[in-house]
């Protein structure tokens, strides 16, 4: 796929994306958060949630769905819990704020659980888990999204792609990072395949009747993680994201969302909910002992025997950090539609 698109330096993309959001009227604080999260996704290889979303966010800012100058508010509910009100702005802004609040809580209570309401699409959930881990905290981030994934054996959309992201600090190394959709793939990847004219892999999407298809133009919904035999696992994990992001925050259920794409209404806020959990290792086993243990764990994991035909055993995040290094050297691939929109 990447061979069919041009590559650009991350710094050039950062400048172009910021300029586009600024022209659309986004405040400097909110656009800085959005640029940070989108560049994270583009650098680690999650192109579906990277700079290609700039045009969509600009359209939503112009249409009024997104508040151009959101004023975030924080309500501390208990020693280890809080709510952030996103004021219907760019979701990245509220999500990074929740990580900051979670860290403040965790420094005192050991854990900081932060719900987010009145927010919007936040891009790659891993960006926020990583933000906590980079400051020394084990961090979990999740969100529910509008219905686009069938249930196991289902023939209609029910859950969103509902990512679960976890990250942990590793001494003298990049953090351990897991960022996974509970669907087979993100819907943005279907749109990316449409843009590039490429077929989808087997078993990841279905047509309007729930029948599996590899044609991105016929794909109407996604299939849950786990495939034909074990998709019930992905469908259940999607419910975990809904539990934390919608039920605990009192926001919008997957099936009640205004669609992110394709609808006529781009002026009504979507009241998305997200959830961030920050854990301070120092309040458990201790930061030094945790650092020693995770280093030992990852060393053992990477040294595990490799099956015949396999290349090597990798820890979550290894592939992403290799992609970052490659893209720092070779540039970030950008699809043709985004290249045109950003004027690259």
From TrEMBL:
Family annotation (Gene3D superfamilies): 1.10.1530.10, Hypothetical oxidoreductase yiak, domain 2 (3.30.1370.60)
Molecular function GO labels: oxidoreductase activity
Its domain of life reads Bacteria
Keywords carried by this UniProt record: Oxidoreductase
One Pfam entry name: Ldh_2
Query: Which family, according to UniProt?
Result: Belongs to the LDH2/MDH2 oxidoreductase family.
Q: What is this protein called?
A: Ldh family oxidoreductase
